[in-house]
Amino acid sequence: MNTDRQVVVVARVLLPAGLDRLRDRYEIREGGLDATREEVLAMAPGASALVPDGSVRVDGELLDACGDSLRVVANFAVGFDNVDLEACEGRGVIVTNTPDVLTEATAELAMALTLAAARRMSDAERDLRAGLWRGWDPAAYRGIEIWGSTVGVIGMGRIGTRFARLAHGLGARIVYTSQSPKPEAERELGAEQLRLAELLERSDVVSLHAPATSETRGLIGASELELVGPHGVLVNTSRGPLVDSEAVADALGTGTLGAAGLDVYENEPEVSPRLLAAPRCVLLPHIGSATVPSRDGMASAVADNVIAVLEGREPPSRVA
Ligand code: DGY
User: Strand, coil or helix: what is 108?
Assistant: First the structure.
């Protein structure tokens, strides 16, 4: 091992599309999928680059464990709510993420969840596998159609806009909330910007595409679910803390909410047992970006960012 090489600490894992390029240039320490916080802290000293994924908390403690050598936190995710940006800034550490390469994959997964929840696919498949199918039943598993429905998009960034295009392609009216108006989406899709309460009331499907911030945490609770209503579908592929899972389980149980499709949870990998038991609910294990091109693209973007910073160049996707 060449001990002069700079050290890249991969807190959990990085795919070969990025890792192999980093291995050619740097010493790699990799924690593995099951790395504990203590193990990550123990690997950190002397790191020039730290590669966490969205499940690794990057705070003052971890940055201090890396020490003064640290120049970049290259998040293996587009979301960066796991990273304390102020703590990085205070230590002169650059933060990067992996935008663009996962836009289509995540929007497509949100649409898959929308259709699966709207058409009660999980309930129907579960019954079929359990041998409960007794033949064609005109009253069974009736859902809603996207054609002619109103689809509400919360957060019209890259992924939200792509999802809106898919929904528009299926014949839905698009309404949205966003920090700023989106004239292009309004022109191209006839999308209409609304306040949150009105969007929840008017939408048949509500899909979340906003980052987890102090403003968006707890955005959807019991009273918001009531506005979505007994025929409405809630879809979340953004971040778990935006939605109160227990409130979703309650609303599905009482019929206050029509259906839900969730890919993310407040405290992953834990999932509320009440949600697991809830009807009209499709639950996935945070696979929004899980396609081959998307995950390889993310790993490659991590390598691009690390190499750029360690070579003294501006990284392609800097967030702070
Ligand atoms: C992302 O890129 O933010 C995905 O949610 C994976 O963490």
Answer: helix
